[in-house]
């Protein structure tokens, strides 16, 4: 017999459970009450299911995980996450050395620790995720404006007082940054396969198709694509309008950029000017982020 001390927010990762179960009604982001039968326990006892729907969990990795069709069993003592259902959704469960790790490819989604013979995790509950807009503070907003800049880079800008509304640089875990920094899955993790002739099997990183079209999607405009190899100032040609039908796309994109950027110039010096004066050993990617910000900010000032 196992006795453990737990709170209502803790979840047990159970490889023997055939469904996700919780006793907490207020965990649900959406809920459907009704008579959904019973769940059978390990001692052949049965507990009534009072409702079913989805629960959104956010782990300390910064990743959100939505559990679908979670059964609401008021008489259940523990909250259970079915490892088998996670496998069906394309996730990988790893148990060992007192640690539970949930991954998808090379991305770590969730973690947990072993407690009294059980693997447990303590995520936060996003019960109002469907109906409530996420409140982003100024630090996170400037982090996105500057091309997901690091804390160190934003701290340098804060010292120059060019980030209005920002008083302290402490970034939350950004899911986009985590996804961008993840390593690709090694081909060694897949079953070996060899071919007799050269180039019968080619390993390659595949990306696409993309949901969002670019302005240069037409195959009859190769001159626009060639400008990508020229200096940065000519890259703007990639955003030129090739036909009148693309104006609506340009209008929507320009409106999005207009709303993201501030309505007034932060200071006498732009971030790109400050960084280049302060240090000449800044990486090319870092400078391009600031140059893009400066360029879009100047366009915004001309529009207003």
Automatic annotation (TrEMBL):
UniProt-recorded name of the protein: GAG-pre-integrase domain-containing protein
Residue ranges annotated for the GAG-pre-integrase domain, each copy included: 118-182
Annotated signal sequence range: none
Highest taxon in the source lineage: Eukaryota
Annotated Retrovirus-related Pol polyprotein from transposon TNT 1-94-like beta-barrel domain residues: 11-91
